[in-house]
Amino acid sequence: MLVQDRDAPKTKPSAKSQIRELPTTTTHHQQIRRFSEPKNLDFSTWVSENLSRIFIVSLSIVTVAAFFFLYNTTDTASLLCFQSQSTQSIQPLARPQIKWNSIQVLPDKTSPYSSFVTEKWIVVSVTKYPTEELKGLVKIRGWQVLAVGNSMTPKDWSLKGSIFLSLDAQAELGYRVLDHLPYDSFVRKSVGYLFAIQHGAKKIYDADDRGEVIGGDLGRCFDVELVGEDSKLEPLLQYSHENPNRTVVNPYIHFGQRSVWPRGLPLENVGEINHEEFYTEVFGGKQFIQQGISNGLPDVDSVFYFTRKTTLEPFDIRFDEHAPKVALPQGVMVPVNSFNTLYHSSAFWGLMLPVSVSSMASDVLRGYWGQRLLWELGGYVAVYPPTAHRFDRIEAYPFAEEKDLHVNVGRLIKFLLVWRSEKHSLFEKILDLSFAMAEEGFWTEQDLKFTSAWLQDLITVGYQQPRLMSLELDRPRANIGHGDRKEFVPRKVPSVHLGVEETGTVSTEIGNLIRWRKNFGNVVLVMFCNGPVERTALEWRLLYGRVFKTVVILSSQKNVDLYVEEAKLDHIYKHLPKIFDRYSSAEGFLFVEDDTVLNYWNLLQADKTKIWTTDKVSKSWTSVKLTGKSDWLSVQAELVKRTVSTMPAHFQVNYKEAAKNNLDTLTVCSSEVFYVPKRLVTDFVDLVDLVGDMDLHYKVAVPMFFTSMDSPQNFDPVLGSMVYKKKSSSFNSSLGLYSAQAPAVHPWSISSEQDFIKLVGKMAEGDPLLMELV
To answer: What is the pLDDT of the chain when averaged over all its residues?
Structure first.
């Protein structure tokens, strides 16, 4: 049933209607000609006089017929998609221009609660009949529960003591955001936030209908009052800003759970489990967003949920309730959810839930977006000890719902830290950031328009935007003196790790992950994918991103959504200088093709200041005797000779010494895996420049580069013991090749998620943390 009255858009006449009108037009012309002067009816004369008309009419008929054919034979959705894409390609993204002073404040005159006003609200999205936990929320004194329905909510939903906004009731409110909201999603809570603000809200507790407030008192759990007699103006512990490279933290470590991480934490940060060496302090009163920790089933992602237990028993994870609350300084972020979070009025603008991203990414993206803008007000986020208990109903959600998180969240955090706006009001800065995020692909133009509607609705319901303050992020950071350091050592509480109770120190598996991350945490992994990146790119990042600084994925075709860069494998070495420049602080760069598996646990002994290559693997590194024929090898040999002749003396000497002045052979290396240390990056780039536009194949260029940069005697032999065989025709035939004791294995074909699962099952022998991914 249509519940929102909207004017139907005016549509152009369809091709069918145009064709139906054609006879009418023709009849009309015939009627006009009936009163014209009689003409000579000789056919040849008539044709000569009307030749141009005949041509035009014929062309029109053909055009209409062609369109009619396309209209009836082409998939309508595809045609509309094509039209949409064409329009988008012509029209660039436009930043909304809003006349704020022309927006009128309008009271609620349509709902049965038009005269109801209260300051404290609990907003919940409801899909099923009231849960026991929701019934408990209604009993919390001084707080009004607002339940927001969607298309899946039972029509007869009711709970005494609560206000229920059905789809029909929402439509009656007339908010601008209604035109942008999906009918079947929890993001319709945005309507509830506006309703609460319109009815006097000063605090909004963003809640979940399966969360039970511990002790039944939100005032005991959070700092509900930030001003006045009831406020607690005590200083808060604050994460240190001493490390400028740290941009995000896992708050669960502070509360005693080092092997648990929140949804929205970049997976590359999962292995960072050490507690803080020290904290600083900040005055209370501006913690406008307060994130509560949940016992039972904390807010975790599907990677954690599917890899931390082997049975159908529900999670019951507990955090240290005695740990102090902790604040985040400007420049450091934390995941924020919509399940257990208190918003004060100064941050109400940050309640907007994006609509163009996957459902499990919406509140997390909102949280990072809101934190960045909160700094413009001098406010901050604080994380509080367990405030709620969420019950695990063993209802897992698909991994695909988190795609926008695992692909983009790390990049989003980096983007937010460097983003700046010159606007002089908060709402204009919000529009600026939303526009910039749409341009960068973190969300779409739909959310840019939604932001515009949301901000206008905030003014309409009576919200006044807070005043800006100077951004501390741009000031020189003060040195943290010894007296400013505050110590707190988290208490280790029992946890669940791979389905086993964890009661003492960090498990051996986590310890190994720390060692690997410490060793390779500043090494960039560059992977070229020959297989379908849409099926494997995310998996490769999940696998290797835990260990390496970052995973740069290249392919023959660019994929913006998956952050895959375009490159040609034949000339892959020409693309590497761009990556070297991008990660100039990295210790080194490890290149691998997706048909080769890296057993990173067996690479720890390798010297990261030396070249790693397969010069000791006879089937990979070979010297081919030239026959003098005009074949591919001879052409490549001529290009090598031409390049060597232009090399500086030190390169030439190294190369000729390695070749032993034997000009009748050509060194060819398959180059599926190799490592370039930081100290030789400049030499590598210089050699790429010497090659220039020559069509020198990477299997010839890479060994030439390495023997020119250094003597093979100085190469690290770590890859010499890798498993290397000629490529098999099928994936199954390579299953027996794998060895967890080898540093790398080739070949290994990955073209689907099922192939990836088989690989992970094999690699779990060396990295047991992967075991539950099988």
So the answer is: 84
